[in-house]
Amino acid sequence: MISRIDLRGPLPRDLRDVLPRADLDVEAALEKVRPICEDVRHRGAAAVRELTARFDGVDLPTARVPAEALAAALAGLDPQVRAALEEAIRRTRLVHRDQRRADVTTTVVPGGTVTERWIPVERVGLYAPGGLAVYPSSVIMNVVPAQEAGVSSMAVASPPQADGLPHPAILAACALLGVDEVYAVGGAQAIAMFAYGTADCPPVAMVTGPGNIWVAAAKRLLKGRIGIDAEAGPTEIAVLADATADPVHVAADLISQAEHDPLAAAVLVTDSEDLAEAVEKELAAQITATRHAERISAALTGRQSGIVLVSSIDDGLRVVDAYAAEHLEIQTADAAAVAARVRNAGAVFVGAFAPVSLGDYLAGSNHVLPTGGCACHSSGLSVQTFLRGVHVIDYTRPALAEAARLVCALADAEDLPGHGAAIRARFDWEIPAS
Ligand code: NAD
C-alpha cells in the first residue's frame, strides 16, 4: 500500500532528500526525443506522418484536422458536457481577463520616460494531451489565457485516436473556443512540428501545455528556439491535513489525482496518526470502486506517493514548501490562515470545499501548473505567460544631457569607450573623454 514516512522529530536539513518524488528522468528521455525532433526538422510533414504511424498507429496523409471534423464534433457533443465546457470557459475567462496588466509609464526625470509595454506573443502552439486520458479541459486552460493576452494566431495539437482524429471532446472544445487550426499530432513530434514548422503547420514562437515525459523532454530540448511554459509533467497532489480533516474527502482527493497516470504523485502530510490510518483504510475501500483501479494503485504505491507524518502543522508547512506540489490542499482547522503561509505550490486549495477536481475544471483558475518541484521557481499558465514586457525608452535632449557624464563614466569604467562616444557625439563632443 501507500508508503509512510515518519518525520516526527527534528526535520532533516534538506527535506527534498527524504520526500517522495517520481524518478522521472527527463534527461534520459532527451536522448530518445532528439532524433524525433531532428527528423521533423529535416523532413517536416513526412517525418510527422511516419512518427504518428509509429507511436499512435494511424497513417494520416495530412495532420491538419478539417473544419468539418470540428463542426461535427461540436454537433455530436453531449449537451451536458457542452454546458459544462461552456461554463468552464466562462469562469476561466473571468479569472484570466482580470490578470491582464496595463502598460506602465514611469517618468524617471523630466523629459525621460520608460514605458513597460505588454505585447502578446504573435503565434503559439498549444498541446492538449490525449494518451491515457483525454483533456478537453486542457484546451480551455491553454486557449483562454492566450486569447485574453491577445495572441492573434494559435494552433492546437493533440494525439490522434484510432479514427485518425484527436478525441471528439478536444475538437469540440476547440470549436467552442473558436480555434480552427488543429492538428492530429501527439508527443515529441507535435512539439517539433510547432518549433520547426512543416508544410502543414507554420512554425510558432511559443509552445505551452502539459504532456507526458516525451512532451516534456521535447519542450526542454527545443527551449530557446521556442518559448515554453513551466514543465507540467505527471500530476501531483499534496494534502496538508490535521485531525479535523475528513478522511473520506482526503482519500477521494488523493485518488482523483492518482487517476491521471501511474506516475502521478499523491502525498498526505499530517500531524495526526489517526487521520493517516483512517485515510489508508479509506484509500483501500475507495480504490476498489474506481474505474481505473490499476492505474491508481500503481500511482499510490509508487515511490512518488506517500503519507508523511509530522509533529505539527508548522512542520507540515515546511514539508509542503520543500515539496512544492503542483496542487496543494489545506484541510486543517483555520485552513485560510494556514494557506496564507504557504510559499511553494502551483495552486493552493483552501478548506474542505475546494478540492483539486474543482480546479481541474471549473474553479476559474488554471490547471496547467508546474510539477516536479518547479513550483518553487515557476508559475502555472496565465495571461502573463503569453505576454512579453518590452521597455520603451523615450528621452529628450535635456534629459539625456542630465545623464550624459554618468553614462560616460560607466562606459569608461567598463572599458567601452564607444558607448561614451555615442553620447558625446550628440553634444558636439563637449563632454570630455577620460
Ligand atoms: P500525451 O498526449 O502527453 O502523450 C501521448 C503521446 O506520447 C502519443 O501521441 C505518442 O506520440 C507519444 N508516445 C507514447 N509513447 C512513446 C514512446 N515510447 N516514445 C516516444 N513517444 C511516445 O498523453 P499522456 O501519455 O496521457 O500524458 C499526459 C500527461 O499530462 C499525464 O502525465 C498527466 O498527468 C499530465 N497532465 C498534466 C497536467 C498539468 O498541468 N501538470 C494537466 C493535464 C495532464
TrEMBL record:
It is an enzyme of class 1 (oxidoreductase). Substrate binds at T235, Q257, H260, H327, D360, E414, H419. The active site is at E326 (proton acceptor), H327 (proton acceptor). GO terms for biological process: L-histidine biosynthetic process. Its cofactor is Zn(2+). GO terms for cellular component: cytosol. Pathway: Amino-acid biosynthesis; L-histidine biosynthesis; L-histidine from 5-phospho-alpha-D-ribose 1-diphosphate: step 9/9. It comes from the Bacteria. PROSITE patterns: HISOL_DEHYDROGENASE. Binds 1 zinc ion per subunit. Zn(2+) binds at Q257, H260, D360, H419. NAD(+) binds at Y127, Q189, N212. It catalyses: L-histidinol + 2 NAD(+) + H2O = L-histidine + 2 NADH + 3 H(+). Keywords: Amino-acid biosynthesis, Histidine biosynthesis, Metal-binding, NAD, Oxidoreductase, Zinc. InterPro entries: Ald_DH/histidinol_DH, Histidinol_DH_CS, Histidinol_DH_monofunct, Hstdl_DH. GO terms for molecular function: histidinol dehydrogenase activity; NAD binding; zinc ion binding. Its EC number is 1.1.1.23. Pfam families: Histidinol_dh. Catalyzes the sequential NAD-dependent oxidations of L-histidinol to L-histidinaldehyde and then to L-histidine. NCBIfam families: hisD. Belongs to the histidinol dehydrogenase family. This is Histidinol dehydrogenase. It comes from Acrocarpospora pleiomorpha. The gene is hisD.
